[in-house]
Amino acid sequence: MSKRKRRRTSPKHRKFIRENKHKYEELLDAQDGGCAICGRHPSTTRRLDMDHDHRRMVLRGLLCVRCNRAIAGWMDSTWLAKASEYLRRAEALDHTTSD
Ligand SMILES: [Zn+2]
Fold first, then answer.
1. Per-residue tens of pLDDT for the chain, all 99 residues
2. Residue 36, CA atoms < 13 Å, CB-side half-sphere
3. Is the pTM value of this prediction over 0.85?
4. Cβ pair 35, 1 in contact under 8 A
5. Distance from the CA of 4 to the center of ligand 1, in angstroms?
6. Ligand 1 center from residue 46 Cα (angstroms)
7. How far is the CA of 51 from the centre of ligand 1 (A)?
8. Radius of gyration from C-alpha coordinates of the chain
9. Residue 97 CA to ligand 1 centre (angstroms)
10. What is each CA distance from 30 to 27, 39, 65, in whole angstroms?
């Protein structure tokens, strides 16, 4: 038999989800019912993702699938602040050259 696709959820992650499941509703309330970044609410078929620090396995908050996938494991707030500033400068350039 050929190699099958890897499991989506590792045992380590399943354990993490099991241990933190009870915090979901409380966190959702604290986040006004939506994603911690964009505010999107969970759908009837998909809950928000329990975003966590992969190295320390610490729950950071609830994110929609789009925001959760956009944040790579290696990113930190310092890098994201620089990336944000970079995009802001590029957007400012757009406004000065578009007319
Ligand atoms: Zn989001």
1. 445 665 577 888 888 889 999 999 999 999 999 999 999 999 999 999 999 988 888 999 999 999 999 999 889 999 999 999 999 999 998 777 655
2. 16
3. no
4. no
5. 31
6. 13
7. 11
8. 18
9. 31
10. 5, 12, 19
Tokens for 19? Answer: 């241990």
Q: What distance in angstroms lies between residue 99's CA and the mean position of ligand 1's atoms?
A: 33
Q: The tokens of 85 are what? A: 């500033």
**Residue 51 sits in a domain of what CATH number?**
3.40.1800.10
Q: Which domain holds residue 53?
A: 11-72
How many whole angstroms from 3 Cα to the centroid of ligand 1?
A: 34
| DSSP E strand stretches across 6-47 | none
| Domains: count for the chain | 1
Do the beta carbons of residue 31 and residue 2 sit within 8 Å?
A: no
- 61: helix, strand or coil: strand
In a domain, 77, yes or no: no
Q: Are 27 and 60 in contact (CB under 8 A)?
A: no
